[in-house]
Amino acid sequence: MPQPRKIIIDTDPGQDDAVAILLALGSPELDIVGISAVAGNVPLKLTEKNARKICELAGRPDIKVYAGAIRPLVRQLVTAEEVHGQTGLNGPQLPEPVMKLQDQYAVDFIVETLMREESGTITLCPLGPLTNIALALIREPRIAPRIKEIVLMGGGYFEGGNVTPAAEFNIYVDPHAADVVFRSGIPIVMMPLDVTHKALTTTQRTQAFRKLGTKVGIATADMLEFFERYDEGKYGTDGGPLHDPCVIAYLLKPELFKGRHCNVTVETASELTMGMTVVDWWGVTKREKNAMVMRDIDHDGFFALLVERLGRL
Ligand code: BDR
Ligand code: CA
């Protein structure tokens, strides 16, 4: 087998972030160099703790978890307890983590890792607001050409937004950070709502996790049953969109996704459309193509991959 691909997961768990972390932990093709937590779905104190809970659930207390930005670059923090519950991980009863949080600031960890490891070998996987990534790029611009790729969950175009009519949550929470990242020149793969709204946690799919009969399988089903109730009410669907695992699934099986390379610009001025990802899908501007914007997913293949990999934990 080739060398596992080195990734840093930047995250705000969040049940769907948790499933993304579990998918990475169940996949030998990936080497998680570290997990950096950011404020988003819930405040930082909870997201860093939730990341540790998930590592312990998977029997991996050796994974290094770092705490990063406590708030967005410019705007006030907006959280999403109505979706994820007060802890961010409502659903299963997970014990308080025993593994320690790393002392190093997540932004320093990202910079140091990129400057130390061979150039072009580290992939960043942001699953929350892009604050930590933007701060790292501002602190040490020399990291930009050393990053292999950024595969992120965020934005929406044809589907519109999920937190305002125009904006998706991760980009809305820190649009200025997103702007820094999309202007960085780093190769970006974007998993917007256009993809994730097609990856629904139907009853049958949630049951498939439960039927694994393992601690991870049962906890995952409990997380998803809590998480989906909000979106089922909102969208009138059986199940909710399983956003963040799309990022990790892409690293494992890119053929599950289809999209187009185009320009993406982030709205940071208008309050009405704040955080909108303006995708030049039809190439009507001369703006440089800066992201592979995904639009379609083989959702059955995606869930089959998830069940198989979580079943290994
Ligand atoms: C994104 O926002 C969060 O609520 C989810 O974890 C996901 O990263 C979807 O808009
Ligand atoms: Ca997230």
What is the structure about, briefly put?
With 313 residues, the chain is an alpha/beta fold. Helices cover 37% and strands 17% of the residues.
Classified by CATH, the class is: Alpha Beta
Order of H and E elements: EHEHEHHEHEHHEHHHHEEEEH
The CATH homologous superfamily is called Ribonucleoside hydrolase-like
CATH architecture: Alpha-Beta Complex
- What compounds are bound to the protein? beta-D-ribofuranose, calcium ion
Q: Low-confidence runs (pLDDT<50, min 5 residues)?
A: none
Rounded average pLDDT: 97
Structural class, from secondary structure content? Answer: alpha/beta
- Measured as a percent range, the helix fraction is 25-40%
Shape assignment: globular
How many domains comprise the coordinates? Answer: 1
Number of strands: 10
Share in β-strands: 15-25%
Tags for this model:
313 residues, alpha/beta, 10 strands, binds beta-D-ribofuranose, binds calcium ion
Can you walk through the features of this model?
By secondary structure, the chain is an alpha/beta fold. It has one domain: Inosine-uridine Nucleoside N-ribohydrolase, Chain A (Alpha-Beta Complex), CATH 3.90.245. It has twelve helices and ten strands. The longest helix is centred in the C-terminal third of the chain and has 21 residues. The two termini are 20 Å apart. The mean pLDDT is 97.
Topology (elements, then pairings):
Elements: E1 5-11, H1 15-25, E2 30-37, H2 44-57, E3 65-67, H3 81-84, H4 106-116, E4 122-126, H5 131-139, E5 147-153, H6 169-173, H7 175-182, E6 188-191, H8 193-196, H9 203-210, H10 215-235, H11 245-252, E7 257-262, E8 264-266, E9 277-279, E10 291-297, H12 299-310
Bound molecules: beta-D-ribofuranose and calcium ion.
